[in-house]
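Dear Dr. H.,

I hope your travels went smoothly. While you were away I took the liberty of generating a structure for the chain from your last submission, since the lab meeting agenda had it listed for discussion. I wanted you to have the full record in hand beforehand rather than looking at slides cold. The sequence, exactly as received, is reproduced here:
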Amino acid sequence: QVQLVESGGGLVQPGGSLRLSCATSGFPFRSTDMDWYRRAPKKGREFVATISGTYDNLDYDASVKDRFTISRDNTKNIVYLQMNSVKSEDTAVYFCSVFRGGKRYWGQGAQVTVSS
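The corresponding predicted structure, in token form, is as follows:
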């Protein structure tokens, strides 16, 4: 079965950096598009970034473009989200996600808090 496990969340100061990881299993990772979403306090879940399978095409929400970088390690079946120049509005629970067989799967989430 599909399993997604995020790690790397925590407290970071404004302007700082943090890297989230998502360990995956249960599907053909190399050929599968992988996504990051987030849910800020009192807001709905929103798209952050995606990396396509096979060709590694990237896309980002405008709010994180040029600050966040999504990448993948196909030897370890892990997808990453490198977060640089973080802002208070980046505070959220971050979710790794994959769409397989007509269903979207989610990890348990990783809390990221940006505060001085």
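Two observations you may find useful: The radius of gyration is 13 Å. The first strand starts at residue 3 and ends at 7.

With kind regards,
E. W.
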